[in-house]
Design a protein that fits this description.
Length: about 550
């Protein structure tokens, strides 16, 4: 059968017509290449080979023994001599327009092939000519790109001549290189969102923030800048689902730390912000404190029997995790003293003792000069409650006045120290105030009374002596409030106070009574067995 070849250098419409007519032809073959789709001439013929970026030197034009770079006439002569051999294909690489045939597999063809006319015989390249300067170039995309960079006739920024030939894939077909907007979006996994919600909840609960902080406009903007894909939970979720989960996690962690341990319970009562009485329990284990829970008394009176029922309830809960309660510490009010007697009677294996910092605070209050303290408090309230006096004190860079509180230990000492530090500024302010004519009679009387106290130097000296007198009590209270304080430390502090305060206080019945309440048999034993103290003070006595 006669062999023939065709030179394809036509526009896109002529190529489509040629493709339609070439399906019935068996003596010729046309291969059409473009940047995305590669067409096969027929099912029974060899597939057209197109080199890609990784083609090695074996695919160069010089591999063909019949190839000699030359002019166009030499190429025509070579083609005529080999006319009776295998089919020779002369391919003009032109962008395809409209729908095409089935796309071949593999990576998309480099668009540099669109600027060259390729002649092949089978799988070998005979000629690869630049469309612009007609120069022969090795059929490798890298060398073809280098040639175009140097080609003077190739317009690297061509001016638009009519409508450009579309190179995008036809409608209904998706290119392998199609870029979707979802490729630039961060998709948060549910597990990541759960961790963020958990961390957010811990922050809100630990800082005691309102749950609706998650709906604050500026907080939402702040979180959006950190991670735009994170959607904050609603305040109902923060106060419901997340809070319940955090409680369960905390309870589980607490159980792991207290399991198979020996602990000392601390029971205390206080009032909520709504003035509702509650009884709370804490566990002390290995130098750490763990809050176990609080229960509102409701309509039940705070009696020793009621407090003991709560103690038994907590005792049974700890037994479920094999946690043994070896001690109970309470404050020293009458109700708690009655509770201690009930525990000693019904739970002989539990060591019971009162809170020594509380006892020391009672000692300090008992021996404080009430008349002297009342005068100090009067001055402190004057500069704390009157706006003009408070403003003058602030402008003179004085410290805010401190008032004693019955539930805050060492607050009496803090009140006296604040008075001594601000005394000079108090005197300047009250003198300037007394020179003001715009005062009522009651204001003048109050100013004169405060001025008399501040200007009394003997009162100033008495306050200093009172602070020095009970400085050992103040130090002992601060020392026994440490997390790692124990019974041996408590004994040592009581003995030190007895030696440092004047004898008239050390031998007083009130001091002896409170010291006896603290120095129980178990406390003395702990002091004697302590590796540092070893009961040395008792042996000296």
């Amino acid at each position: 059968m006669a062999q023939s070849y065709r030179l394809v250098s036509m526009d896109s419409q002529e190529i489509r017509d040629m493709l339609d007519n070439s399906e019935n032809e068996t003596d010729s073959k046309l291969t059409y290449m473009e940047s995305i789709d590669l067409f096969r001439p027929s099912e029974h013929e060899n597939e057209q080979m197109v080199p890609d970026e990784d083609e090695d030197e074996s695919s160069s034009l010089s591999q063909d023994p019949n190839y000699q770079p030359g002019s166009d006439s030499e190429v025509e002569a070579s083609l005529s001599e080999n006319r009776n051999q295998d089919n020779v294909e002369i391919v003009t690489n032109t962008p395809k327009s409209g729908t095409g045939r089935k796309r071949s597999r593999g990576r998309p063809q480099n668009q540099v092939w669109l600027e060259f006319i390729t002649v092949t015989r089978g799988k070998n390249f005979i000629s690869n000519k630049c469309k612009h300067c007609k120069e022969q170039v090795s059929a490798q995309s890298s060398r073809m790109e280098n040639h175009l960079k140097k080609c003077r006739k190739f317009n690297k920024t061509p001016v638009s001549q009519g409508l450009p030939t579309p190179i995008s894939p036809p409608v209904g077909k998706e290119s392998a290189a199609t870029t979707k907007i979802t490729n630039f979006m961060y998709k948060m996994l549910p597990r990541t969102k759960d961790k963020l919600n958990e961390s957010l909840g811990k922050f809100i609960y630990s800082a005691n923030l309102p749950f609706n902080v998650v709906e604050n406009e500026y907080f939402c903007k702040f979180v959006g800048l950190l991670n735009p894909s994170y959607v904050l939970p609603k305040h109902e979720t923060v106060g419901g689902f997340l809070l319940d989960n955090e409680f369960k996690r905390t309870e589980l962690e607490l159980t792991k730390q207290l399991e198979n341990q020996k602990v000392v319970l601390a029971q205390d009562g206080w009032s909520t912000t709504q003035q509702e009485p509650v009884i709370a329990h804490s566990a002390i284990c290995n130098g750490q404190s763990f809050f176990l829970g609080a229960e509102a008394t409701g309509g039940s009176p705070k009696t020793a029997e009621f407090c003991y029922s709560l103690f038994e309830k907590q005792l049974k809960q700890l037994e479920t995790i094999n946690c043994e309660v070896v001690g109970l510490v309470t404050d020293n009010c009458n109700t708690m003293l009655a509770l201690q007697n009930l525990v000693k009677k019904n739970n002989p294996n539990v060591i019971v003792y009162g809170c020594s910092p509380h006892l020391l605070n009672l000692v300090g209050q008992h021996y404080t000069n009430k008349e002297l303290m009342d005068k100090v408090i009067q001055v402190q309230k004057y500069f704390r409650n009157h706006y003009y006096a408070r403003a003058d004190l602030k402008s003179s860079k004085g410290k805010r006045p401190v008032l004693p509180m019955p539930v805050r230990w060492n607050s009496q000492t803090d009140c006296c120290l604040s008075y001594l530090e601000n005394n000079g500024k108090y005197l300047e302010i009250i003198r300037a105030r007394r020179n003001t004519s715009e005062r009522t009679k009651s204001e003048r009387d109050e100013d004169d009374s405060v001025y008399a106290i501040i200007s009394d130097t003997s009162l100033y000296d008495s306050v200093e002596q009172m602070i020095k007198l009970f400085s050992s009590v103040v130090k002992a209270i601060d020392s026994l409030q440490r997390e790692d304080a124990n019974l041996a430390d408590m004994c040592q502090q009581w003995i030190t106070i007895r030696e440092e305060i004047p004898l008239k206080y050390a031998n007083d019945n009130y001091f002896q009574e409170k010291m006896k309440m603290a120095m129980t048999d178990i406390a003395i034993t702990a002091h004697m067995l302590h590796p540092h103290f070893k009961g040395n003070i008792f042996f000296k006595s």
